[in-house]
Amino acid sequence: MSLNIYPEEVHKAELGDPAYYPEIDQYCDKIHRACKGFGTDEKALIAILGTKNAVERSLIAFRYPQMHSKKLKDLMKKENSGDFGFATQLLALPSIEYSKDLISLVSSEVSGDLKKLLVACLQGIEEVFDPAYHTESKAKEDAHDFYKKGVGKTFGTDEAALFEIICKAPPEYLKMIDTAYVSARNVNLEHALLKCLQGKAEAAAVFHLNMKLKPYETIATLIKSTCAGLGTDELGLTCAVIRYQHVLQQVTMAHIDLFGKTIGDRIVKETRGDFKKLLLEVVRVAWPDTPAS
Fold first, then answer.
1. Which helix (H) or strand (E) holds 234?
2. Cβ neighbours, 10 Å, residue 211
3. Is the pLDDT reported for residue 14 higher than 80?
4. pLDDT tens across 227-277, in order?
5. Per the record's keyword annotation, is Phosphoprotein included, yes or no (predicted)?
6. What angle do CA 157, 161, 166 make, to 5 degrees?
7. What domains, with CATH codes, occur in the chain?
8. CA distances from 249 to 50, 225, 253, 286 (A)
9. In whole angstroms, how far apart are CA 202 and each of 66, 114, 251, 272?
């Protein structure tokens, strides 16, 4: 199956079965005190929210309103601002939160090829890998179909068919399709997508493909891209670091291999103030040797 970026305990909590323990109540009380009265104790919030893993943060997010009658995200929005404030809001969310049908929401917000891809992703059509079904012979057939629906199609591209293939295929099998495509065409599936698509749909499709083929390298490259060029994409950097915290140990190793530095090194160079301190703590949970601010 595709990379699970949240621990199993988080999914159980989301389904209404959170396993609280005494420390969670203590964390909630400390957050409440840090935001009580005049001013906010940013140092305390960094020490509480920044040092917790995805499971602990989810439990805190669920427990806080039960104890203090207010959603933690709403409290962080009220008490903090700027990049630091946005980061605290993300850390205050349950790891998986949405308030309406996601397919309906996405369908109302995007269009064209990007909509086709996102809807295919949200339908949860990925198959469970079965060696008896996902064979080399079938991979060759799907690779040929990928060519016929894409680069080899005389008029236009059947984007929906391409998206169905990369969304349905489990990672192990998608690698087999990619190998078969390279053997037949001397280029890989990413090259084919770049030939067939453009704009946001192209970027999203390539990202989805590579999250199945080489997830840790793909996340590492995403983090690096938020710091490329003039200025830093603080929103993108924050989202990536917090969303992928559960796998940041593997991502950091990939980042070192690709770019010769840790994610923490990049954060030290690209950010500042309490925002930098908070992100470094989030990374340190997964990579203890993260540098100090």
1. helix 234-243
2. 18
3. no
4. 988 889 999 999 999 999 999 999 999 999 999 999 999 999 999 999 999
5. no
6. 115
7. 8-91 (1.10.220.10), 102-213 (1.10.220.10), 216-286 (1.10.220.10)
8. 16, 19, 6, 5
9. 43, 8, 23, 33
